[in-house]
């Protein structure tokens, strides 16, 4: 339950500390006094979006801090899953910085908004007039049934199964599309692949072939050059080898006279050895070099094939052609294996569909069983609220469509009076009737949802007199199961609270601020009397207020 709320620099509130006392608290105040501001501040700690407009003073940060007694509500798993420290009195803090950024903390540990929202959903149900309109929403009607039916575990299982089923369906769809696309290109891809396989390309082959082509195309020119090299090197009288031998012999004679001459001798000896080696290699190249038109033709054919393939695939190297060949091989193999993969996914999808359908059927069955229980309880409460002839008809239909919470569609039909036919709730119920129906629903759900707290924001809209008194009794009864806070304009409801708070505005200089205080018994009498008769409080109004307060 909500124990304490601290607010600083939020909207019209400079600083406010509220300690909530008793199980049923009422909150009153004139229109515009700041009741909605309190709900806005509480909404922040429950994970609502924030903006700079929330800051009263744009130069300092806004802080909203709430203390919740959560012992006995089995929330330890949430703290464990999110790696947070569990405290029986948990503190949630939200800060909005002047920069516009916001931060959230649970027991002083930083958390994300989604984590804050999840914890908030376990702590408080804030009922607003907007939620009364949600009573006409099909999804909300199913949520009511599920609470009474105890479908929480089944819905969690269904949600997991549906997610798996949709994921497999998506994978299956991609495989089918892939097969269709590959099927259109399969023949052409196979043709291209066979063409590259026949080419039997090897890395660096193009450079080798181009070099060989140059040699075979210039045999006579190359032989002429090599012959000239051999002639110059090996000429008996004036060849390079003979001249180097003479130099070597001359240096050998004087090499012993100085290290300098010894070095010359060694260097010339090395040159001579290298020249002999080069000459021998040139001679071998000359001997094996023959004019071979047939070999040249084969080289030219292979190169033309490579150039044609490069042009077709818009690449410039053999390595790129080899990569294309490998990719085509993968596509062809993939296409051949897709049928097996598709069959496997189809089997998996069929199994998951069967499991999901079975869970959806259990949810539907539980909802059907909950309908008479829920209807009976709501009708009994509405009879207390001046609607003794109210009737409901939940039309629950199993469909083939997968929704987030099952496969059901629902129509909530309503009749307020004897002799009138059923109609859709949203079309036939008045505002006052909707308020009473919603209170009846909340009163029933209080026995099932096990939420620590509920806040009613003017759920009494459109009612008055004895009906308002009964609404107060119902809220009082609800407070035996959970903490109830009612924001109200009706004295009959305000008088039912264990504690009574008043929101009011004051002016300090040029600034208007909202404040709140817990009323004493005497202050409470005057507040209720003012609600009964206006600013000019009469003695009869005071007497009536005392009577309402018992």
Would you give an account of this structure?
By secondary structure, the chain is of the alpha/beta class. It has a domain at 176-337. It is built from 18 helices and 15 strands. It has helices at 35-45, 76-81, 113-123, 129-134, 138-149, 152-199, 205-217, 219-234, 240-254, 259-288, 293-313, 318-384, 425-428, 431-449, 465-478, 491-494, 521-533, 539-549, and strands spanning 2-10, 13-19, 24-28, 62-69, 89-96, 102-106, 109-111, 124-127, 391-403, 406-415, 423-424, 453-457, 483-487, 499-508, 511-518. It has a six-stranded antiparallel β-sheet with strand order 2-1-4-5-6-7, with helices on one face. Strands 8-12-13-3-14-15 form a six-stranded mixed β-sheet. Strand 9 (391-403) and strand 10 form a beta hairpin. Helix 5 crosses helix 12 and helix 17 crosses helix 18. It starts with a strand and ends with a helix. The mean pLDDT is 87. Pfam families: SMC_N. InterPro entries: DNA_recomb/repair_RecN (IPR004604), P-loop_NTPase (IPR027417), RecF/RecN/SMC_N (IPR003395). This is DNA repair protein RecN. It comes from Flavobacterium rhizosphaerae.
């Amino acid at each position: 339950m909500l124990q304490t709320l601290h607010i600083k620099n939020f909207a019209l509130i400079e600083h406010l500390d509220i300690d909530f006392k008793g199980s049923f608290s009422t909150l009153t105040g004139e229109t515009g006094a700041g009741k909605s501001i309190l709900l806005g501040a509480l909404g922040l700690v429950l994970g609502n979006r924030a903006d700079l407009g929330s800051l009263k003073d744009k130069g300092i940060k806004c802080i909203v801090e709430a203390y919740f007694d959560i012992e006995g509500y089995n929330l330890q798993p949430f703290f464990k899953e999110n790696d947070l420290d569990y405290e029986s009195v948990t503190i949630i803090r939200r800060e909005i910085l002047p920069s516009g950024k916001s931060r959230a903390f649970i027991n002083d540990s930083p958390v994300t908004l989604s984590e804050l929202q999840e914890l908030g959903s376990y702590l408080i149900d804030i009922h607003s007039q907007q939620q009364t309109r949600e009573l006409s929403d099909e999804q909300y009607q199913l949520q009511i049934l599920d609470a009474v039916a105890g479908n929480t575990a089944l819905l969690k299982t269904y949600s997991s199964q549906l997610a798996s089923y949709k994921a497999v369906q998506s994978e299956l769809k991609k495989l089918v599309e892939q097969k269709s696309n590959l099927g259109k290109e399969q023949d052409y891809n196979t043709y291209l692949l066979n063409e590259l396989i026949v080419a039997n390309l090897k890395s660096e082959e193009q450079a080798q072939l181009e070099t060989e082509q140059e040699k075979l195309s210039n045999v006579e020119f190359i032989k002429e050059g090599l012959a000239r090299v051999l002639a110059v090197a090996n000429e008996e009288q004036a060849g390079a080898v003979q001249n180097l031998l003479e130099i070597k012999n001359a240096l050998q004679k004087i090499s012993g006279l100085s290290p300098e001459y010894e070095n010359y001798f060694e260097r010339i000896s090395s040159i001579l050895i290298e020249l002999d080696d080069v000459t021998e290699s040139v001679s071998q190249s000359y001997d094996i070099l023959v004019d071979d038109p047939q070999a040249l033709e084969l080289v030219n054919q292979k190169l033309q094939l490579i150039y044609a393939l490069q042009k077709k695939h818009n690449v410039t190297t053999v390595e790129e052609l080899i990569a294309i060949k490998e990719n085509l091989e993968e596509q062809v193999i993939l296409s051949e294996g897709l049928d097996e993969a598709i069959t496997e996914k189809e089997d998996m999808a069929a199994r998951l569909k069967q499991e999901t359908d079975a869970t959806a059927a259990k949810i539907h069955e539980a909802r059907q069983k909950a309908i008479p229980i829920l209807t009976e309880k709501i009708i009994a409460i509405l009879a207390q609220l001046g609607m003794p002839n109210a009737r409901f008809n939940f039309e629950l239909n199993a469909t083939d469509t997968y929704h987030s919470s099952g496969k059901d569609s629902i129509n909530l039909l309503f009749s307020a009076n004897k002799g009138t036919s059923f109609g859709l709730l949203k079309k036939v119920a008045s505002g006052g009737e909707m308020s009473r129906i919603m209170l009846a629903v909340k009163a029933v759900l209080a026995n099932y949802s096990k939420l620590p707290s509920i806040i009613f924001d003017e759920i009494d809209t459109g009612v008055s007199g004895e009906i308002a008194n009964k609404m107060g009794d119902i809220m009082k009864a609800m407070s035996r199961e959970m903490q109830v806070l009612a924001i109200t304009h009706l004295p009959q409801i305000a008088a039912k609270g264990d504690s009574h708070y008043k929101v009011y505005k004051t002016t300090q200089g040029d600034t208007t601020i909202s404040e709140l205080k817990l009323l004493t018994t005497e202050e409470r009498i005057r507040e209720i009397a003012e609600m009964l008769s206006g600013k000019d409080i009469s003695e009869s109004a005071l007497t009536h207020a005392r009577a309402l307060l018992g």
